[in-house]
Write a structure and sequence with these properties.
By secondary structure, this protein is of the alpha/beta class. It has 3 domains: 3-125 and 168-183, HUPs (Rossmann fold), CATH 3.40.50.620; 215-274, SH3 type barrels (Roll), CATH 2.30.30.280; 278-354, Elongation Factor Tu (Ef-tu), domain 3 (Beta Barrel). It is 26% helix and 29% strand. The chain has helices at 12-24, 40-46, 52-65, 75-91, 98-115, 159-162, 174-183, 205-213; strands at 3-7, 29-36, 68-73, 121-123, 129-132, 138-141, 165-166, 218-222, 228-232, 253-259, 264-269, 278-288, 297-302, 310-316, 322-330, 338-343, 346-354. It has a 6-stranded antiparallel beta barrel. The chain has a 5-stranded parallel beta sheet with strand order 3-2-1-4-7. Strands 9-8-11-10 form a 4-stranded mixed beta sheet, with no helix packed on it. Helix 1 (12-24) packs across helix 7 (174-183) and helix 4 packs antiparallel against helix 5 (98-115). The radius of gyration is 21 Å and the shape is globular.
Length: 358
């Protein structure tokens, strides 16, 4: 008998994914797995556990669907592989993409290591599609809902991981997922979508960073003139393209650069914001979903999660690096973020942005 694990979070997406998975594989043995990745240090200053509500929904979903529930403890792996990496990147003055590493190293990484041998396949409520060719290769494609599409966050998955994964709702727009939840009276049918970084849950990002890195006051400097406009409490609280939270008058002002060694945050007024935009960078440590790099040439790229694509030329460099030349400039590119490469609607993989070239 085929055995499938459904990663259940307590939200409407994974609840509908479980319901559809049971229809799609009526002969399979399906179990729900809740990944316990709560950060005890963060819970200490938050007070009540913000994930108790998640578990309550998970248990209600499983009870209604008569599905066995397993709680998988991945706290130590999560703290080391995702949170630790993100904090190291922030300390180094870069902007990490922890959600990408969470999918690669935890949901479809540590989980596979700890419990994957018990299952023939693993399913989740992600908005993405996997299409398999005649050779058995799994190809990662965008969901039809461009706003909800999550291929950006799944871009670091390997071919080995993709071959074992199913996305039961990946072909549906969000409105249809909500409709199905209503029609089937699923417990989280009216529950709001979770927002923010994967490992934070309901924890405010600034509070998380302050808890681990503290504060380090420094100057906010106008990029064009060198004039000191105000003070920041730590350059790690700010990222390129940020507008809110600067506390400056006569704005709007945008973060355009940082000097981590001198502890400076550089800003430009909206009238000069586009002047600081960049159109080229290096792509470091790339992951290619098929195991081999694509040919040099023009591709579509995402520089952040969302519906917008950029067009750019990829040129291979030495030491497993790629040079990327965009057709248009963007003021929100930051070192440490991920650039993800697409051919039409297929996600080919991606890598870490390095702006040292510009």
């Amino acid at each position: 008998m085929t055995t499938i694990a459904l990663l259940l979070s307590g939200g409407v997406d994974s609840a509908v994914a479980l319901s559809l998975l049971k229809e799609q594989h009526p002969e399979a043995k399906i179990e729900a797995c809740y990944l316990k990745i709560w950060l005890e240090d963060e819970l200490a200053f938050l007070g009540d556990c913000p994930w108790e509500e998640d578990l309550d929904y998970v248990r209600r979903i499983c009870e209604q669907s008569e599905t066995e529930l397993k709680i998988i403890n991945l706290q130590s792996e999560y703290l080391e592989r995702v949170v630790g990496f993100a904090l190291d990147e922030l300390r180094a003055g870069r902007t990490p993409s922890p959600d990408i590493h969470c999918n690669e190293l935890i949901k479809f990484g540590a989980f596979f290591e700890k419990a994957g041998k018990d299952y023939d396949a693993v399913a989740s409520g992600h908005y993405a599609q996997i299409k398999r060719d005649r050779q058995g290769h799994a190809h990662l494609h965008c969901a039809p809902d461009p706003i909800k599409d999550q291929t950006y966050f799944l871009s670091n998955l390997s071919q080995e991981q993709l071959r074992k994964i199913h996305f039961p709702i990946g072909h549906l727009p969000k409105r249809d997922v909500r409709r199905i939840a209503e029609e089937r009276n699923l417990p989280p049918k009216h529950r709001k979508d979770s927002q923010g970084i994967c490992f934070l849950g309901k924890i405010p990002y600034r509070e998380f960073v302050k808890c681990h890195l503290g504060e380090n006051p420094g100057d906010i400097v106008q990029k064009e003139t060198g004039r000191v406009l105000g003070q920041h409490q730590g350059s790690w609280f700010h990222t390129i393209g940020q507008r809110k939270g600067l506390g400056l008058g006569e704005g709007p002002w945008f973060v355009v650069d940082k000097d981590f060694e001198k502890n400076l945050v550089f800003v430009s007024h909206q009238h000069h914001f586009q002047d600081q935009a960049r159109d080229r960078f290096l792509l470091l440590s790339p992951n290619w979903n098929q195991g081999t790099p694509p040919k040099e040439g023009p591709y579509r790229l995402k520089l952040r999660h969302g519906p917008n694509f950029f067009k750019g030329q990829l040129t291979a460099q030495s030491n497993n690096q790629w040079f990327v030349q965009l057709e248009e400039r963007d003021p929100g590119i930051a070192s440490g973020q991920h650039a993800v490469i697409y051919r039409e609607d297929e996600c080919l993989g991606g890598g870490i942005i390095d702006l040292e070239i510009s």
